[in-house]
Amino acid sequence: MTYLNQYYPQLLSGLFCTIILCKLASFLRRRKRLRDLGCGNISHYPHKDPLLGYDLHRLIEDSKRNHLNVSLIQHLHTTYGRGKTFQALTWGLKTLYTVEPRNIQTILTSEFQSFGVESIRKAFNDPWIGAGIVMSDGPVWRNSRKILKPLFGKTLFADPYRLEHHLSRLLALIPRDGSTIDMQPLFWRLYFDAATELIVGESADSLLPDSRMDVPGFLSLMERALEGVQRRVTLAPILSFVPRDNAWTEACDKIHSFFDRYIDRALAEQKKSSQCREHATSQRNSRSTSILHELVEVSQDRRFIRDQLLSLFLPFHNASPIGIADLFFQVARAPGVWTRMREEVQSVGDVPLTFELLKSMRYIQSVIKESLRLLAPLDRILRHCSHDSVLPVGGGPSGSEPVLIQKNTLVEIRTSVLHREPSFWGPDAEDFRPERWLDHTLRPKWEFLPFGGGARNCPAQQMIMAQYALILAKFVLEFETIENRDDVLEFVDEYKFSKRSARGVQVAFT
Ligand code: HEM
Questions:
Q1: Ligand 1 atom nearest residue 191's Cα
Q2: Which UniProt keywords apply (predicted)?
């Protein structure tokens, strides 16, 4: 002991010197590597807490509470971005923020294998959603994508008319006397009915007075489950030490039981019909009206099927109603847009609003794109870098040199910032102006990504665009005007898994 005490100062200084030498060696190795690869240094956020970056974490969380999250991320990009790219820390993990289209293209296409999602999403979502398409990478993801992507190409699922009878019920609930109505909860119900019908083959019919299920109960379970995931993301580094969240587990279990009931029934039907071949063909034709019934044809694994169904149910029930509610929010504040859409639909006369016809309505299509540009419901594309990679831009004093992204770096692409970049969209980038899309010279590629891009883009994009066009066409035919009835004109954002209007969508129709 005395011996140790005697040499303690020498041991300590030896250890200190070793750490300094290791750091220096790593710095020199990295500098040489950057030089060999022609990469420049990336701009860094000036953290007060250089170990964990807790200062920025708090700033981001406060901005969400104060409805200023998009402005904060925009401010960070303007202040610290070089080549529209900078680096910061998230709980000690390097995080690359980029809104540079060339970098985004590289991350989502050519270097896509090095930028996955599994390590980010699975930890927070399992066991709520296990290995569904949105949670996995590699062969598991490829297999899910191979099974699910073609379904969205089928007329059966892409047909906007599957929404029509739900839409008629919604239209019947709109007051005709000019009184105020919040469209947000109505669109949630519309998409809840459409999602349950398309995914498990049986609509919840929440827009009818006598719905067959406890819709408010189920919706609050979903909220609870999503809040639980959000909480797990916030507590990421100490997750293993946090006591079990029983309310979250209970909500997840109840949602699983809801889906399992349908899955077990579909599996039993499938088994019966495969025993009787003749019966099978007729059954398949009548049953193949839902994603569940397509899935039982390729797998009998209940957990696999449930993970896929939940992966689809989540965006269907969440992103889709938010997107259309935000569209009405913006149109109600934009004089003249409603009338112009109405004229466009009326000009085609009394003919069926087919998919092709809706697609050819240039003004309506422009309104949808403009709304998704300013208020994309899923505005964060997150990736985890699994191998050192080089991105084309973001390094050096002006940000024009390539930049090295080290293994284990998180990547955040914020489309709400990308979609408002004045260097591409012009000085009126913040304004809702659908007419900009009628200009043939506007041809965004990696500057406009409301449905993501590359190998993992949204398989439901065409379906959603067609459904939104149908909803708008039916509404403008039914009502001459829409009027905003909210004193607050600005969009006040609220983050609950995804971004939505905290004040709903208060409007009146005449
Ligand atoms: C307005 C509505 C929607 C928007 C804005 C939207 C947006 C997106 C975005 C941005 C991504 C890419 C995420 C990433 O790269 O990390 C994505 C992926 C995905 N979306 Fe959508 N989505 C919508 C509706 C839907 C619907 C209705 C479904 C299913 C019924 C769906 C299914 C999916 C799936 C499965 C993926 C993951 C694809 C993969 O990882 O291979 N989405 N969506």
A1: 27
A2: Heme, Iron, Membrane, Metal-binding, Monooxygenase, Oxidoreductase, Transmembrane, Transmembrane helix
Nearest CA to ligand 1 atom 12: 452
- Residue linked to tokens 């005449």: 510
Peptide bond into 459 cis (omega under 30): no
Question: What does the block give as tokens for 235?
Answer: 């507590």
Q: Are 98 and 80 in contact (CB under 8 A)?
A: no
Name the 3-class secondary structure at 180: coil
Alpha-carbon distance of 8 to 5, in angstroms, equals 5
- Give yes or no for a contact between 434 and 370, defined as CB atoms under 8 angstroms apart: yes
Q: pTM for this structure?
A: 0.90
**Would you list the DSSP string of 21-77?**
HHHHHHHHHHHHHHHHHT--PBPB---SSTTT-HHHHHHHHHHHHTT-HHHHHHHHH
For 168-207, the pLDDT digits (tens) are 999 999 999 999 999 999 999 999 999 999 999 999 999 9
Q: Are 163 and 191 in contact (CB under 8 A)?
A: no
CA of 459 to the centre of ligand 1 (A): 6
Which residues face 382 on adjacent strands?
A: 412
Nearest partner of 96 among 377, 376, 392, 394, judged by Cα: 394
Give the CA-trace dihedral at 222, 223, 229, 235, to 10 degrees: -160
User: For 88-126, what is each residue's pLDDT tens digit?
Assistant: 999 889 999 999 999 999 999 999 999 999 988 887 887
- Name all residues whose Cβ lies below 6 A of ligand 1: 133-134, 145, 311-312, 315-316, 319-320, 323, 376-378, 381, 450-452, 456, 458-460, 464
Structure tokens at 473: 């066409």
Residue 152: HSE in the Cβ half-sphere, 13 Å Cα cutoff? 17
Please check whether residue 496 is in contact with residue 226, taking contact to mean a CB–CB distance below 8 angstroms.
Answer: yes
Q: How far is the CA of 378 from the centre of ligand 1 (A)?
A: 8
Residues facing 88 on adjacent strands: 95
